[in-house]
Amino acid sequence: MSHHIVEAEKLHYSYPDGTVALADISFRITHGESVALVGENGAGKSTLLQHFTGCLLPSEGILKVGGLTVDKENLAAVRRAVGMVFQNPDDQLFMPTVFEDVAFGLLNLGIHEAELEGKVMGALETVGAAHLKGRPPYRLSQGEKRAAAIAGVLAMSPDILVMDEPTSSLDPMSRRRLINLLKTFQHTKIIATHDLDFAMELCERTIVIHKGCVTADGPTGEIFSDDELLKRSSLEKPHLFYNS
Question: Residue 36 phi/psi, 5° resolution?
């Protein structure tokens, strides 16, 4: 099932001012894996995520999604395969109501009107937000906005779910609801997060990014047990280690 696979080979990216953001990034993420991307602020996590949907294109190297090279020619197909949930849900919510926001992507795909309401309400029910369908996004709490943004992505039935800091600004109940929801998503998940307890609970594999490079890639428990690695990467051991 190659359409769920993400591969990077010697990926480099430099900003227009010459600042190197990613250097020699290589990995292969296969169907159904849940992978955490961790690292300090400025490590390059968000820059890497933007490559998965072609918002940024490599300066050098190759990135493939579902066997397709991420380039200008393949952007439409790549974006159908990858559902991206941004760190700030306000970047994704711009329609007058939640229902219209969730419907927006489906309408662009040409979904027939007869199917639209069922798909939108199904996605909202999945994230526990059906009661928000008529609400304007600007009147939602941060957790409600996050749920609406995720519903908009899930409605598109992506093969690969990519999330940037999904637990930021969430209260404990909303965070737990998100964890339980993501455990039901059976396809590939790639999650950039500072919340290492969240990563421990959800992701069996972790890739550590430090100064634009992959410095570790392996089972999450082993990565977070390595005190020296965590120290070098400006990360702290998850609380779950102290409570077990």
Answer: -95, 140
Residues 6+ apart with CB under 8 A from 39: 45, 208, 209, 210, 233, 234, 235
Gap between the Cα atoms of 170 and 142, Å rounded: 7
Whether residue 4 contacts residue 31, with contact meaning beta carbons closer than 8 Å, is answered with: yes
The burial of 202, by beta-carbon neighbours within 10 Å (0-12 exposed, 13-18 middle, 19 or more buried), is given as buried
Residues 32-90: tens digit of each pLDDT: 999 999 999 889 999 999 999 999 999 999 999 988 999 999 998 998 899 999 888 88
Model pTM?
0.90
Q: Where are the domains of the chain?
A: 2-237
Query: DSSP label at 209?
Result: E
User: CATH class for domain 2-237?
Assistant: alpha beta
Distance CA 2, CA 188 (A): 11
pLDDT tens by residue, 77-89: 998 899 999 888 8
Amino acid at 191: I
3-state secondary structure of 237: coil
